[in-house]
Specification:
Aminopeptidase, alpha+beta
């Protein structure tokens, strides 16, 4: 009890000082509770200039975006899209050619990253996507076309609180730093990991306890004695546990770290509570007090529903890797419209070809094997928002390992070989076991795989760049797949009564339809319209169609028909007319038409 009271008093002192210390844009309140670590992995080649070889921190990301806005003022807008739990701005960019119209009138794509605190590979992936667009404008005709006709919203850090804690301290958590009582003892966050050897990581501890007293043995196939093999309680001679101390005296180590909720279980579609009354209902760990209880997810939701021009969303995680999509709580064939599912399957197939990922498919079956994830963004993205919505998983260390030792198998021993022999990452993947005096257990050894920059993310450098490039290949495919309505034909036909029949052909020249069937069902999009405004010398003749006509929605490239439509008006006189086409996701634009007197 005395130890617990002292620990709580110390926490209050630290938290009080943290409030002042956290005024730095790189140090959140939660991060300030732990010793700061200066990870080399966060060091840029040149500070404030984007490179895909390191993990930029919050302050640098802001600088990078502002530098881009200064360099390309006609293409970039930088702004805060909301506030985090600790009050940090959630920064976002809109990328489009401003001279060709407002972003809100263009078909759009959204790219988000770093929702989960430790999945920081997604930061440079989001920035690389933005960099490809900006640096290619005026140089690459295809990129120039994209920015002239479409809009791209990029949010490099959805969860600044947790991710800055991750990149500035040894601590890690799932997502938000909102205090949460994981172990149910009435105190929040009182037993996080402890960096006993001071190397900046929470690794593992092993302790020799004699034959028959442990749950691990040293791998007999590893002559270096570093790899531990789990053999079950009472069958080993070592105990292996997470690096830490039983700070609250409950007999467990690291069971109540900072935070505990999961932002990616906080979406409103198919949300389930963490606890329910009957004892036999569905629950979801980390779901939060209610849907969108967390400000980071409220910010996402509100941005989406106020920007229905978005047809494609990519919100990235780590580390499988996989092109991951809805549904999250049911099989594709039982809950998706077949015509919508066809587009997802097309992206799955072509995505794997571009990225090299072995897996692609839905969350429920292909990823979870029939285990539902409630309150998950892909379910929201399709069933409520009616979009193509991917939540891709980047990295996956097993995919970046070769058969280095030539034994015909790619396994953990090849990972050790990489750690020992590849100069760029030598000694960075695995830390040798080092004796440390534990306050409760006596002498233990601390070591093991790097939890941050090997297990969860690649080490900085070429492997990080490779992971970013793999994902960017797919993200660029998505960027080129937006719908786009265009006027593809104008015909004037003189009528026997002297009037002129104006016929306009409107086509969807993009890949996606301007409305998935699901988007129409939930009224996320409106039916398109084509309206004609007449200038001086022109009037609508008797019997003409109305000035504004419904044109419905337009099919995409995978549909056999419905991507081209015509509208007509009967006009009298000559002069200039303005055609205004409005589609929620296909774009809004004006076209000038000259009507001649034959």
């Amino acid at each position: 009890m005395r130890r617990t009271i002292l620990m709580l008093l110390a926490a209050l002192v630290v938290l009080g000082s943290a409030q002042a210390f956290a005024t730095s844009p790189e140090v959140t309140v939660a991060a300030a509770r732990s010793r700061l670590v200066d990870y080399p992995e966060t060091h840029p080649l040149v500070w404030g200039e984007f490179d895909k070889y390191h993990y930029p921190k919050y302050a640098e990301i802001i600088t990078i975006m502002n530098n881009w806005a200064a360099k390309w003022p006609d293409l970039v807008e930088v702004y805060s899209a909301g506030k985090s739990f600790e009050g940090l701005d959630i920064w976002q960019m809109t990328i489009t050619n401003k001279a060709t119209g407002p972003a809100e009138h263009k078909p759009a794509m959204f790219v988000g990253a770093n929702r989960h605190s430790g999945e920081v590979t997604t930061r440079p992936a989001a920035l690389e996507f933005a960099w490809r667009l900006l640096s290619g404008y005026g140089v690459d005709p295809e990129i120039t076309y994209l920015l002239d006709n479409f809009a791209y919203y990029v949010r490099p850090v959805e969860n600044p609180d947790g991710s800055e804690m991750y990149l500035n301290t040894a601590q890690t958590n799932r997502s938000t730093v909102r205090p949460y009582d994981d172990d149910g003892d009435g105190v929040c966050d009182e037993d996080p990991g402890d960096d006993l050897d001071g190397d900046g990581f929470i690794r593992q501890m092993r302790q020799y306890v004699g034959p028959g007293n442990g749950n691990y043995i040293i791998d007999p196939n590893d002559p270096s004695g570093r790899i531990m093999v789990r053999v079950g309680d009472g069958n080993g001679d070592y105990l292996v546990m997470n690096e830490g101390i039983d700070n609250d005296g409950d007999g467990r180590i690291n069971e109540d770290g900072i935070g505990g909720l999961d932002l990616h279980r906080n979406y409103p579609e198919n949300w389930r509570p963490m606890r329910e009354a009957t004892g036999y209902g569905w629950t979801q760990g980390g779901a939060g007090e209610y849907p969108l209880s967390e400000p980071e997810m409220r910010s996402m939701f509100l941005w989406m529903v106020t920007h229905p021009n978005i047809s494609i969303v990519q919100t990235m995680d780590t580390a499988v890797p996989m092109h991951l999509r809805p549904p999250s709580t049911s099989r594709t064939e039982e809950s998706m419209f077949p015509e919508d599912a066809a587009y997802y399957v097309w992206f799955d197939t072509h995505g794997k070809e571009l990225s090299g990922y072995a897996r692609a498919g839905d969350v429920y079956q292909d990823y979870g094997g029939g285990r539902p994830l409630f309150g998950h963004s892909p379910d929201y993205g399709y069933f409520q928002f009616g979009a193509i919505w991917y939540g891709d998983e980047l990295w996956g260390r097993q995919d970046y390992v070769e058969d280095y030792n030539g034994d015909g198998v790619i396994d953990i021993y090849d990972q050790l070989w990489m750690n020992d022999n590849i100069d760029e990452i030598k000694g960075k993947l695995f830390q040798d076991w080092t004796p440390v005096e534990h306050p409760d257990l006596g002498e233990v050894e601390v070591g093991g795989w790097n939890p941050k920059f090997w297990n969860q993310n690649p080490p900085a450098g070429s492997l990080l760049a490779k992971a970013v490039d793999k994902q960017t290949a797919f993200n660029m495919l998505l960027a080129k797949s937006l719908p786009k309505l265009e006027v593809t034909g104008v015909a004037l036909q003189k009528q026997p009564d002297g009037n002129t029949l104006l016929t306009v052909t409107i086509a969807n020249t993009g890949f996606l339809p301007d409305a998935l069937t699901q988007a129409k069902l939930v009224k996320m999009v409106r039916e398109g319209t084509a309206a004609l405004t007449l200038g001086e010398g022109l009037s609508f003749a008797e019997g003409s169609a109305p000035r504004s006509q419904d044109i419905g929605t337009f099919a995409g490239k995978l549909d056999p028909e419905g991507s081209v439509k015509t509208v007509s008006w009967l006009l009298s006189g000559s002069g200039e007319a303005t055609l205004t086409v409005r589609s929620t996701r296909g774009g809004q634009f004006d076209t000038k038409i000259q009507v001649f007197d034959f």
